[in-house]
Amino acid sequence: MFLNRMVFRSLSRQLGRRILIAVSVGLSACVSVAMLGVVFDVGDKLNAELSTYGSNIVVQPKSDAVVSDLYSANDADSSGSALDSDPTSFIKESDIPKIKTIFWAYNITDFAPQLNTHAKVGVNCGGDSSGAACHSVSAPLVGTWFHKKITASTGESSTVGVQGMRSWWKLTGSWAKDDSDQAMIGSTLAKELGAAVGDTLTVGKGNATQQLRISGIFDSGDDDNGAVYLSSSAVQQLAGLPDQVDRVEVKALTTPENDLARKAARNPGALSQADWETWYCTAYPSSIAYQIEEVIPGSVAKQVRQVAALQGDVMQKTQAVMILMTALSLIAAAIAVANLMAAAIAERSSEFALLKAIGATDASVSRLVVMETASVSLFGALIGAGLGSAAAQVVGHVVFGSGITMRPMVFVLVFVLLAVTVLAASLSGIRSILRLRPAEVLHGR
User: Helices then strands (H, E): number in the chain?
Assistant: First the structure.
């Protein structure tokens, strides 16, 4: 009876250690699969998330870009605020849909042209048929696309405009319609004029005057609060500039810059043929900008450095944190497996000594221990990988609002890392088996 209890306790301890090994490996697999799954998919998710805060590429007429460079002006800011003075050089609005014909067309998620000018703006007096404004001020006008459906020469249709590029705006009322008599006014200007949604706005430039209905009042949190947004066709008519725009904001999903991208941004012609092909066929901001210049005559496309740098910096830091967590989980698993194996081998030393005494080699005993540990670890890893895949989906929905695409490479990489981890953890146990002397152990020495 006493012997049976001893055997039962020994078997219970061995089973407990195997369960702990499976749990340790399983937890490591869970963390590793979740973190690496997010790492492999985080690039597009972060770019999509950050791109909601504005454009990352701006297209300008070539002459404006040269002047901007000469005076060391900052890269065009992503807010799209109107210029301090009216532009003097333009690109054709009819060329803008060509953006959707470049190699990286599917990475272009949104874009909107602008024609910036200044005009007298006022809110009409009630019942005044003359259309005279009660109080008028000079304010920036931004002619743009709000939610416009375009068809590229390839036949592909897209809906683009500032409605998708200014998702952070706080809006009272509704978005204006394209090619209509509707306008949107910034909150600062609306307060100055005493304007409200539904009021009629009188806009005058030179001898041209237009009556517009205020469809919405927006709060952008920047200088745009002092501007009026209206259809590009309306501003072109006021300014006498048909089919002209002076700026295009582009929002694109991009790959973070590296040395090759920075070198190409300075001078694409300095690249070797192989480097040029690699750069051109990678979604760097500079390569997308270069391709936009190819399809829009007389234009210069520049990346918004602040946005591009933020995207790359945030992604690199996020990936570094997740990779660090993966490494720490593997180290923790290795320590746990090594300690549990050492305890199990110490308890089973008599068993292993007997096996060696009846002819088993060190290699065969070591293989037995490693195979036992590997089978238990594999079971834990499979369970952990399943839980890790589910955890990655939770992270994706909570942080990014969408699921994580689990690539097969994630599971292959995790199982390879776990195999190396378990093997490394088994080395101390194998050394204990090699040092084991059957005669000494069996005689209780």
Answer: 13, 14
Structure-token pair, residue 331 = 């180290």
Give the CA radius of gyration of the chain. Answer: 33
Largest CA distance in the chain: 116
Tell me which H or E stretch contains 217: strand 208-219
DSSP state of 102: S
pTM assigned to the model: 0.62
For residue 171, how many C-alpha atoms fall within 13 Å in the half-sphere facing its CB? 16
Please give the Cα distance from 178 to 73 (Å, whole number): 32
Q: Which residue has the tokens 């002047």?
A: 67
Per residue in 109-153, pLDDT (tens digit) is 899 999 999 999 998 755 444 444 467 899 999 999 999 999 888
Q: Name the nearest CA neighbour of 94 among 12, 152, 138, 43.
A: 152
Distance separating alpha carbons of residues 48 and 35, to the nearest angstrom = 19
Amino acid found at 140: P
Beta strands of 257-376 (E only): which ranges? 299-303
Residue 421: C-alpha distances to residues 31, 257, 321, 381, 426 (Å): 14, 33, 20, 12, 9
Q: Residue 8 contacts by C-beta under 8 Å, 6 or more apart in sequence?
A: none
Which residue type does 288 have? I
